[in-house]
Amino acid sequence: MNTPASFANWKIFWKRWGVLTVISVITLALIAYYYSKTPQITEAVLASTLRQSVPLVLGALCGLLGERAAVINIGIEGQMLLAAFLAFLVNVYTGNLLLGVLAGIAVGALLGLLLAFMSVTLKIDQIIGGTVINILAIGLTGYFYKVGLSAHGKLNPIPLGPLAKIPLIGPVFFNNPPITYATILLVFLVHYVLFYTPWGLRTRAVGEHPRAADTLGINVYLVRYVNVVVGGALAGLAGAYLSLEAVGSFERLMTNGRGFVALAVMIFGKWTPLGAWGAALLFGFATAMQTQLQFGGQLHIPHQFIGMLPYLLTIIVLAGFVGRARPPAADGIPYEKEG
Amino acid sequence: MAEKTTQNPQGWWPQMKRLLLSFSVPLGAVLLALIIGAIIIEVSGASAWKAYTALAKGAFGNAAGWQRTLEKSTPLIFSGLAVAFAFKAGLFNIGAQGQLLFGAITAAWVGFAVHGLPPGLHAAVALAAGAVAGGLYGAIPGALKTYTGAHEVITTIMLNYIAMGFTDYLANGPLKDTTPGNIVARTPAILDSAKLPTWGWLPFGFVLALIGAGFAWWLLQRTTLGFEIRTVGQNPHAARYAGMKVARTVILTMVISALFAGIGGAVETQGVVGRYEPGFNANLGFDGITVALLGKTNPFGVIPAAMLLGAMRAGSNVMQFKAHVAQEITDVVQALMLFFVAADMIVRWLLRIRAAEEGEKITLSTGWGSH
Amino acid sequence: MSENQTFALEVRDIVKRFPGVLANDHVNFNLRKGEVHALLGENGAGKTTLMNIIYGLYHPDEGEIFVNGRKVTIDSPHDAIRLGIGMVHQHFMLVPVFTVAENLILGAEPTKGLSLDLKAARQAVVDLSQRYALEVEPDAIIEDLPVGVQQRVEILKALYREAKVLVLDEPTAVLTPQEVEELFVIMRQLTERGVSIIFITHKLKEVLTIADRITVMRRGRVVGTVRPQEVDEAKLAAMMVGREVVLQVEKSPAEPGEPVLQVRDLVVEDERHLIAVDHVNLEVRRGEVVGVAGVQGNGQTELAEALTGLRPIREGQMLLGGKAVPPRNPRYLIEHGMAHIPEDRQKHGLVLSYTIADNLVLCTYYKPPFARGLQRNQAAIVENAEKLVQQFDVRTPSIFTTAGSLSGGNQQKVIVAREFSRPVDLLIANQPTRGLDVGSIEYIHKRIVQMRDQGAGVLLISAELDEIMSLADRIAVMFRGKIVATVKAEEVNREQLGLLMAGSPASEVLGQPQPAA
Predict the structure, then answer these.
(1) Taking CB atoms and an 8 Å limit, are B365 and A305 in contact across chains?
(2) Which of B59, B134, B310, C270 is 20 to 30 A off residue C416, Cα-Cα?
(3) Which whole-number Å values give the CA distances from C82 to C51, C160, C198, C383, in the listed order?
(4) Which of the residues A216, A219, A338 would you substitute to probe the C interface, choosing the one with the greatest number of C C-beta atoms within 10 Å?
């Protein structure tokens, strides 16, 4: 490099973060503009954006933990659905919200174990394995669900003292229910684990070149199992969010495709937790706007079309971004030990 | 997967034996699923024996039962064929649901809006319109896959939701039944000239489904197009090397697969429902996967698999009424069947079935790109 | 070295069976401290199996392993590493998107609290490369490094884990002759520092240069252990193959006719959109074999794929029989007289799950007599298969056997049979004998020469210098995507080719300016 160091550094910075910087600046400007015009609506939309992004970012974290270790998880939808149901059921019968959430996490992790068993040990095609989980979840929730059960309360927002009183930022970031807070922490935690710890290094090695990891004495199967199970727990938390935090009840098929949208979020976020969070916020925003449009009544578009928005966005994201980012090299391929 | 195009002319018996052996795993899967289903029924306090006998009686006990079973099997055969056909090219079409909805509503529209056609012709035109509508909708994920690399599993599911929204809009808006007193979302009833007949207890749609299965088998195993489709599924690199047009084959396969789903929807409209109503058979897309895998993705295997599931649907009412077991147990049993047939190693191990000769193997999950 | 010292490593009576194959049949082998012990054998002789047993990747069915005279069991690479055994695999076990430092520490990471200590990792790279004089940049990404450097990283990985026994599996396959010499220097330095080396190869010249002892394997058995002073190439070859081997292909001088392939200023990109083929000019005439020599990864793969329509051409022109060809259209090329033996026969050349009969019509299935209208003509397909299997000596129980269950040599014969059964004007053969046994190599070579003598032009791409030298009439040397020289085969020697492959300017190596191809 013959260019002066500072210039070269700046160029690298721009290449890496340029698009992101521009988007952030524009977003912040827009938010400021709308906030000056209609503070309440802006606040409501932004708060709703954050909350709508919760199940998507948790699902995406589940997906990327698996895929960083080369296990494709197409069963996130089913993990969320069954977890939502069991979290709800435990709450109904014990009246305890925390137990409900824990039950959701446990169910998600168990289904993760099932997926790991199918794709790592049995080496079933991972797409089919995930589909089995989805269909199993639909069947089980359908059979055991009884109309008329009602939950004992739901997880409510906890304002964080004076922080919650800051205009705009307070209501959006510091007045949220517990799973929403937990999700923000989890994004950073997963990012740290994946990129700054030995476990993360091993996980990424297993996803890129499992044979190399194996020859260095890393237990490929174990790494895959743990990642898929932990991912399942996160999907379970997303399920608990849906039934106990977002709605406070369970409905049939209430996940509504979020598990699949989460996969698009993961791809859009280039298989990184922070990227996935950004992508999830975009999807959350689309959903928040959808609600706003439906009940705001300014526009006369049939509600069915507004309801398609997240799904269309998913297709567009997939069509535009698959192939631009590089998935883990061994993604989806079962590992055969030699001998 | 048992038969090969250029099969050994001698020795039909070894081949037959292999065919039977290859179906021992699905049979074992069904058996295990029924056993676990029985345990669930017993645990929830009902009698499994009573439930299963009631189910069987409801499905096959009389002519009406048979007719119901065949009617329920028909869309399952079509969606099973849709999944199985795409599978041969290495594509996982979970979008049969949406393709079927478009087929159903298009056939309904042609059925009630077009006047003056003679009975047979009107029915045929409506069927064809349904097939084409489904097929075109299937072209979208095919094109997305070839030109952008977007994986069909996610795009087809998203398209399912979009199709649900769109048909719901149509049935509530432009195509809504305006008969006085109607408040639900549905289209007007189709004309008699567009209806498919039922001969005694045999619905014409079921016959169409059988013909469809035969056609799918012929196309895959006996034609050059089928050879291309299978080669793309087995080894797309070799297909490209051999001068096949992989992109075109992928899109064409999705279209043909979706045609089956579209006909399935049209048959449901013209043979059973008589109009379009949203929400009928909500999970046909996923059911198609179970049917296709139970049938070992063989077009002829799809028929018994679909009939099994169809019988469970047809008899579940009677079961609920007589044995007080919720209908949804059939969904659980069906999910278990899928699990066991997918996890065929478990079934082999549990039932001591020795591994059949490794046949053609399809890989669906090799990352998200299509390259 | 005294004879009664304990061995750094010894295996006794190792037996390993795979379905249908006895890969190791009571193998005995020992390694003295500080020696280079070559393990020589053909592909499939059982060398790699033995090494995978030593490294804990396979479990032997019978036999014992001793390290420093102590009996050990090695159940996993983990055990092997603990016992001081390091392995440099033929296909590098490096994570391409990781840095050198990350690859080095993987599996044995230094930590600070819960976090990775990448600073310590970098320092480890620097320390090791100084101690063993193996220079590498700790923050370089592996996939950006040349293979020679990647190999150094592999060796460093073993040394980081304090390996005392180093297994090098076919380490020279990807190197230029000059890089091979550098590797030999490194190996000598390592043995001086007390490392013992097992050097696996099938190249006779190399073992005679570097090895202290040579053990030859054939069909899973040890044929014998000799010292390089006691043998010569012909004797080693006979031990390896079990019979006298003709090291030279018999062929008459070429009689070139009109050009069949002309390539002008061809530019092709690789997967990462970097230029892989850089303004290449090439001409192949009827009745001659043009060899493309070069170290793997210098653009040969991309060149072959572009010429066969599998990869887009960014710039430049390609004429087949004097006519410009449409872009990315393998079928046009097939129909206009091109035959192609692909580099990766299992990926491109065959559908492994199909029968031999179906594979033999893979390119012509849509034309009569194999198709009648929409339908396939089973009788014609079967008849074709029976004829070709006999004509090309494919050893198979039946034409309905799947291609996947054939041996490598027979798989390649199926491809050759299919490609040669059409009228051929131009044959593009990319690494046609890679991984094959000597018998199959001789057969394929004979067929290629035959094709030339029938008047077809042949473009032979090979990483094996010996293959190029014995088959080609003219040789084009490829380096970093460019054809750096085109010479007549009889006017150049091994050393000169080696220098050209390593990037030395043609005017220096050959002593005269080169005419354009």
Answers:
(1) no
(2) C270
(3) 16, 12, 18, 58
(4) A216
Domain boundary among C422, C457, C477: C422
DSSP state of C229: G
Higher per-residue pLDDT: C255 or A232: A232
Residue A159 lies in a domain: yes
Q: Which residues on chain A are in Cβ contact (under 8 Å) with C111?
A: 197-198
- Give the domain range for residue B167: 73-301
CB B289 within 8 Å of CB B83: yes
Model confidence pLDDT, tens digit, residues C433-479:
887 877 888 889 999 999 999 999 999 999 888 889 889 999 999 99
Of C422, C451, C473, the one marking the end of a domain is: C422
Residues C38 and C85 in one domain: yes
Q: Give the one of A118, A305, A323 whose C-beta lies nearest to B169's C-beta.
A: A305
Q: How many domains does chain A have?
A: 1
Output the DSSP codes for C4-54.
TSPPSEEEEEEEEEETTEEEEEEEEEEE-TT-EEEEEE-TTSSHHHHHHHH
| Contact: B6, C310; criterion CB under 8 Å | no
pLDDT of residue A94: 93
pLDDT digits (tens, 9 = 90+) for A127-169: 888 988 998 898 889 888 887 788 788 888 888 888 888 877 7
Indicate the number of domains in chain B. 1
Q: How far does C359 lie from chain B, in Å, by closest CA?
A: 10
- Does any domain span residue A248? yes
pLDDT more than 70, % of chain A: 93
- Residue C58, pLDDT > 60, answer yes
- The closest CB to that of C106, out of A201, A326, A338, belongs to A201
Q: Is residue B131 part of a domain?
A: yes
Same domain, C116 and C226: yes
* Mean pLDDT on B134-153: 92
B22 occurs within a structural domain? no
| Contacts with B94 from chain A: Cβ below 8 Å | 131
Range of the domain at A124: 55-254
pLDDT > 90? residue B243: yes
Number of domains in chain C: 3
Per-residue model confidence as pLDDT tens digits over A268-308: 888 999 999 999 998 898 888 877 777 665 667 788 888 88
User: Which residue is closest to C18 within chain A, CA to CA?
Assistant: A339
Strand partners, C242: none
User: Per-residue pLDDT for B178 more than 50?
Assistant: yes
Cα separation, B25 vs B27, in Å, equals 5
The C-alpha atoms of residue B60 and residue B68 are separated, in whole angstroms, by: 9
- In angstroms, the separation between the Cα of residue B83 and the nearest Cα of chain A is 12
ipTM: 0.86
Residue C210 and residue C250 in one domain: no
Instruction: Give domain status of residue A100, yes or no.
Output: yes
Task: Please give the residue that has the higher pLDDT: either C194 or A41.
Answer: C194
Residue B314 maps to a domain: no
Domain carrying residue C85: 9-241
Given CA atoms C439, C440, C443, C449 in this order, what sign does their dihedral have?
A: negative
Give me the sign of the Cα torsion angle A249, A251, A257, A263.
Answer: positive
Q: CB contact, 8 Å: A39 with chain B?
A: no
What CA–CA distances, in Å, run from A83 to A75, A104, A244, B332, C68?
A: 12, 4, 11, 16, 56
H-helix or E-strand containing C458?
A: strand C457-462
The reply to whether C35 and C68 lie within a common domain is yes
Residue B117 in domain: yes
| C15 and C33 assigned to the same domain | yes
Q: Is C342 within a domain?
A: no
Mean pLDDT over residues C77-103, rounded? Answer: 92
Q: What is the pLDDT of residue B230?
A: 95
Task: Provide the 8-state DSSP code for C509.
Answer: H
Question: Would A318 be classed as within a structural domain?
Answer: no
Amino acid at C339: A
- Considering the domain boundaries, does residue C217 fall inside one? yes
